[in-house]
Design goal:
2 copies of one chain form a homodimer. With about 350 residues, the first copy, chain A, is α/β, with parallel strands linked by helices. Helix content of chain A is about 45%, strand content about 15%. Chain A has 3 domains: about 40 residues, 434 Repressor (Amino-terminal Domain), CATH 1.10.260.40; about 130 residues, Response regulator (Rossmann fold, 3-Layer(aba) Sandwich); about 130 residues, Rossmann fold. Chain A has a 6-stranded parallel beta sheet, with helices on both faces. A 6-stranded mixed beta sheet of chain A has the order 7-6-8-9-10-12, with helices on both faces. Chain A is elongated and about 80 Å long. Chains A, B: Keywords: DNA-binding, Transcription, Transcription regulation.
Chain lengths: ~350, ~350
């Protein structure tokens, strides 16, 4: 039921008013016959007509100067840092950012998109929801300037900002192998997530198990929370099934660290995504760091350009990741000499 | 220039229309003479009249089902956890939350408040800005159901949710003294912040220095960032001026930990506000924990009740804090036995 979006012509026909008058109305002219103005307003509401903001905002004063952001979870430091970076760039350009989180709920995600469009934001930056990343985008992309971040969608014509998930994981896994690990476990979230599929692909560029049973015993993609990751790592430690841990997101890294603390011993570890306390732990935690500030900057500048009708070329940016080695990748740790 | 807010009578007079017609218009009746409707719409815009949402939303369908949240910094885990908790309760009640951060900028804060009201949110939850916490509230409190959290305002009649900052700090400082510290340093942010004034007051209930010079050498309220806190703690360590550190917010705690790592030795430490990695550090970091989930729940339920015209009694909730001792408060640490 992907209906054609209503046009200004439809509004004119419904209101029995000339196209020029409708155009003057939606562009903010105030000297319109109030009878006609009321008819146009009712037609716009009845049709759910959305004025093309990208074109309209070229006229000064017609823009809401608002950008909407829909992410998965405001309390996840990866997303809150991303939101902060986007907010900063919006602010530099005189725009405000409204942030909302959908908690990976497809229905709620659609509701947030609709609500932000109804609030007349000038553009949307969206992390697609895990279980159905594509459905919302077909509906949204003709209604509003749109940028997706972190995970792509299949709908064409959408600006997309991604990190090099596979490359970052490949480098981390290679380092763990270089440090002597034969059995590197992969602990991550659902493979419904693009980022997890990419990270697992990067891991498999290095770890190619001929033994399928071994591969199954070392690959875990059911860790949505830190506690779930912790349980998996505890079980690996108890059964001595792994030589090293690749934690495929910051939830899994925290979980692995909790498991080490509970079990009383550790394994070499690298996690995907940096976190503030990582350098303060003992050993300091090595990570694949995304350039979240840059991702936010590119996303914000792209959506602002589109909202201003500058129509940048639609493209997919893949930002490089960085392997930050701090000590936890090693088998032996250098001790606790900084502690008095 | 605190003008009387425009009333429905003012709209009726300006539009030369009866009060009943204005009332029917603002309550969504559609069978109004379009000429009158257009005149009313123009008068509402000219007067910047804001329909009393608390009363209006009793009628089903008239509510935007949106709540606005203005905090200091989305990327600070204290505020992002608070936002998450508020969002969850709003969601349970069928409301969506729009979160924005003002970065302690008074002008930006006012802009966010105005913008959220213009977006017709049903209610606002606000952390007042540091430098001028009161000015915005006089203007906002008659326009919209309002709850302030974390820091109070002087304007009367506003629901207020606070933590027991002084009591929590008093307990933490007493514990550091009990552990043998004579010179407990207080590291925090500006005393323009209500929370900092309260925490310093709690500290001073325990630490009463007769020697003013000593007091000045141990009280630091210029640490807005973790790096500024780190520099202060490094300098204390170098000059051996303190026996223990009370870090008055999570920025200062991270800063103290960075200083310990850089200096190669530590002091007994308790921080205000818990953070995810605190139990994973070595020694695990002791904190004064706020019940952020409960604070968010009370704030959300209060603003939703007010938005639905249930008019709860205006009151100030002070939520208790909890001293969580994990090891960092001690002079001697029990070692690193969990490390293999």
């Amino acid at each position: 039921m992907q209906a054609r979006p209503p046009t200004m012509n439809d509004v004119a026909a419904t209101a029995s008013v000339g196209l020029k008058t409708v155009s003057r109305f939606v562009n903010g002219a105030t000297n319109i016959d109030p009878v006609l103005a009321a008819r146009i307003a009712l037609a716009i509401e009845a049709l759910d007509y959305r004025h093309n903001l990208a074109a309209a905002s070229i006229r000064p004063g017609r823009s809401s100067k608002l950008i909407g952001l829909v992410i998965s979870d405001l309390a996840n430091p990866y997303y809150s840092s991303l939101a902060r970076s986007i907010e900063r760039v919006c602010s530099e350009h005189g725009y405000l950012l409204m942030s909302m989180s959908c908690d990976e709920d497809t229905e709620r995600h659609q509701l947030l998109i609709d609500r932000l469009i109804a609030q007349r934001v000038d553009g949307l930056i969206v992390v697609p929801p895990r279980d159905d990343p594509n459905a919302w985008a077909d509906g949204a992309r003709w209604r509003i300037p749109l940028v997706v971040v972190d995970r792509p969608v299949t709908a064409p014509g959408i600006h997309t900002i991604l990190a090099d998930n596979a490359g970052g994981t490949e480098a981390a896994t290679a380092e763990l192998v270089r440090q002597g690990a034969a059995r590197v476990a992969f602990i991550g979230d659902s493979l419904k997530l693009y980022t997890m599929r990419e990270r697992l692909a990067g891991y498999r560029r290095i770890i190619e198990h001929d033994d399928l049973r071994l591969s199954a015993r070392l690959t875990f993609t059911g860790a949505h929370t830190a506690d779930q990751a912790s349980d998996i790592v505890l079980s690996l430690l108890e059964k001595n099934l792994a030589d090293a841990i690749f934690a495929a997101n910051n939830r899994s890294t925290i979980g692995a660290l909790r498991a080490f603390a509970r079990a009383g011993h550790r394994l070499p570890l690298i996690g995907f995504d940096d976190f503030e306390a990582a350098p303060l732990l003992n050993p300091a935690v090595s990570v694949v760091a995304q350039d979240v500030a840059e991702m936010g900057r590119v996303a914000a500048e792209t959506v602002l350009a589109a909202a201003q009708g500058l129509a940048p070329l639609v493209e997919t940016h893949v930002l490089p990741t960085r392997l930050v080695l701090r000590g936890s990748e090693a088998k032996e740790i250098s001790g606790t000499e900084w502690l008095e």
